[in-house]
Amino acid sequence: MDSNTAKRRKLDHSNGYEVASSTLSSMGASGASAFVLETEELLKEVKLDYGRVPSSFVDSLKQFKDIIEASEPHEPLPINHVSVEFEKANRITIPYPDPKPARDSPYKLSFAKPTQINVVGSWALQTNVKSQPDLAVDMIVVMPESIFQEKDYLNMRYFYKRAYYLAYITAQLRKSTATTMDFTFDHLHGNNLLPVLVARSKDSSDKKGVSNNASPRQNPSPAIRIIPCAPEGYFPTTKLTAISNAIRQGKSEETEDAKAPTPFYNTTLKAESQFSSYLRLLYKTVKSCVAFQDACVLGRIWLQQRGFSSSIHGGGFGHFEWAVMMALLLQGGGRKGEAVLSPSLHSTQLFKATLQYIVSANLQKKPSIIGGDPPNLDTLRQSMPILYDTARGINVLYKMTPWSIALLTEQAKWSVSAINDNPQDQFETLFITRADQHLQIFDLLLNVNLPASKEGFEVADRKGFVWDFSAKLYNTLKRALDERAQLIHIGVPETTAWPVSSAPSKGKRSSLLVGIIIDPSKASQGRDYGPPYEQKKEATRFREFWGEKADLWQFPDGNIVESLDWTEYSYLGFPGICEAIIRYILKLRLTVTDADLEFHGREISKILPLAPSDKMAFDTARQAFEILERDIRNLEGLPLHVKQIAPIGPDLRRASLRIPEFNFRKPLLQPMEVVISFEVSGKWPENLAAIQRAKIAFLLKVGSSLEEAKEEEIKTHLGLENATRDDENLAFLDVVYENGASFRLRVHSDLEESLLDRQTKDQTVERHIRTESADLLASYRRMYANLPLHNQSVSTFCTRFPALSASMRLTKHWFNSHKLSCHFNEELIELFVLQAFLKPYPWQTPCSATTGFLRTLLLLSRWDWRDEPFVVDSSDSLSTSQRLEISTRLQAWRKIDPNMNRTVLFVATSHDVTGVAYTQHGPSKVVASRMTSLARSACRVVKEKGVDTNIRNLFQPALRDYDVLLHLSQKVLKSISRDEDAVRHSQYKNLDDHAASGKNALPLAEPAVRTLLRRLKTAYGSPLLFFHGGPEDAVIGALWNPLLHRRAFSVRAPCSLMRSPDAAGDGGEELYEVNKVAVLAEIARVGGDLIEKIEVRDA
Hints:
- The chain has 1099 residues and is an alpha+beta fold.
- The chain is elongated and about 110 Å long.
- The protein starts with a helix and ends with a strand.
């Protein structure tokens, strides 16, 4: 903190925001230095090397300038005549913007030598990067005043003359360079009013056609963009304010259309004359602020990773807007007109301070005016966000929409949160992670087809039909969804270039992509409430907007309000309710039919049913546990007082894959696990084996006492663990309630941990005994220390994050589908998902199961578990020194065990910094690698296909990857689990009655498949690696161990061997290999009726 004091004092003059000082203080000294080093390395890597640009390209720029300046001028001619003659003579279609000039238009077109030709933009500032998708050099051609008239700013006249000027230049350039260059027309930043000429070297065009994935490094020669523009300061700014109308053609001065303001059209005109002015501003800033260029490059990368650009398709905020904003903030922007940024700041500090300004300025709700003599605020009113540059009279953000500024602000807010949350690890989330993936951001996605007819949607401002319809769509959805949606974004189609010899292609009917981030606490509400009935104006507007869907609702206190009833869709959760609202309101307000809407992500309900009733089921299970706890605490006659009863099962932390539904006819077959702790006492025997027997006595006493106290309600059963030693836990107690709730109790003894710890450290005993004691101690701590804390933590966060429970269940289903869950503890998978919620950057906390699941996969795909620990700081209590200690411990493990035979994944939490509590029994290196590979494949599919991704495909197991497939009998599995459909009825009535009474319906010790799998691992874990999902998975996959190669005979053979017929050792001795047929035959014998078929895959 002290290291930043001087810098903070230097920035105290920026009273308005103090953004730079706040970002500095949030970083800390070590975080700042690490971040600076990483960004400097990034800048070296991504900056374009202008020295490597071919000299032929520079020659092309000079050649273009000479050709344009040498073009022959001509006198003014009628627009219709000159257009027809020009297009016929040159075979170039003049790119007039819509609406095209009428045949009888009185305008005249001429050509004269430009007053100036100059290179502007990123190329002039040298702020290009190698990863730019379309590298181009902007060359402005300033048209002379002689070809214009005083009122050419009205009725598109300037833009018609500009289009002809561009076409005339194109004709001259094509005549001279047709053999070396390809020419196309495009719209500047997607603005339909501003066609430009794009020239590419034919060599570059051919390379681009061969490979769409060619990087800018392989093709350093950029395109040349010819941009005609107006003379500086030519247009009267007083007549082109945001409330002025400049489109009056064919309209009476008294009509509403003639009075409607045209802010977009007006600002486009004013911006046409300011290219040189902004070039001077930016060049001056480069000279006065050393770090300005690097800060611009960092801003470009940040925007590019989030899908923003200067084009309307890219949100209207790109590198130019970022650079101008920083340049203006270095001059002013404070509350009293003082500079917000200081030129002495480092590039990273400028970058972070600019982000903070975007968040703090609240540009979507209030205008930001930078410069002296601010204009009348009434002249700035417009629907676009406002960053007004008073020196040039331009709203820098005029190409932005309400939804793009909202998304930009949210992205900046998420990035600032990442900086403030973890200064040590902010670089990757800011600059490396691709943050514009729709499925990762939005909880609800749909395509809306554009209407075939433009009637009723286009306005006079010349933004274009797509923008006008999108604005009405946005306003309608925002009002309809109201508090259900935190953010609504609309993706518009991208404009494409077209040949100079033809008009722009209309193309097929396109659609808009609507993304919605929901508010999980309000999106599932079944009823919306409007204004009170007594407020007549508001109530009338409410009814006019909602139509016949609006009705009246009376509260118990007598108040009557307007309301909307969506309860018929409540069983579908927020996706169903929001879809119903959207379909209804778009059909009513915009006449958009159901056929014009396509909702994405519906496959989730088919993969794993996620219903609002699931929460009620988990709540019921928790209530049942509270009843159990009360019943046990009320028992009398126990030898020791009960200190704690802690749940440890996933059912009681809202994380179990199967919903804990039960009733008196269908009790839970898998009981909910609970640990009971008694008060500290000296009566416990100081012998591990004796302690286990004492635990059995406690369980029997608890069971008998419960049955006596609740004779008709509770049945208890003592069960035996699968113990192989007498000093590990031997038994558990199943408690089954009459209502179907069942629990499995285990007893916790504090003395047991002390004895195991003492035995582990006792150097007088044999090593194998110490090793066994260490394993028992780890198992003990997991069961009695980590799991209760884990249960409490996850349960708390499931309440805090409504989407966490469903995301955990969906992620577990993914592990099950790919047969990985037998290698991962459930709580480990839950930690993976929890981390995606606690550290969601570069986004906000997931609000739906889909986004939570996909971000968990992204987290796993990017985790380098070989060198990085997985740290889940759920209580936000780990200090920097503790984190360093965790990393040091992982390095120590890797030195001790470089092949990762014992510890593969290193997962530390707030309550366990050892890193091995959750991974004591796996996964192995092979399984961990498979998890990473599958996660990366899933993320690659999501990234490449976007909203067209079929989520169900992410859950399809790749069975062809396994050497052996064990197909299990579903019939036998059902009979073992005593499913209702598989109950066998006896021919004797009294036996049926006995079974129906529930006396034989004992809870399962564990699922049958898990028992089989455990025995197979014990017996054949050396030659085979088994993979299996959940209890419902009917196929066990297996891979032969490649390390068991041909070898000489040994008495301690790992499995059944057979003589290898075609191999001999160096000394001529016989070699043996795994007898695969015999091993599989033994597996078939062990599995019995449970294994229906064994399929051996071809090598």
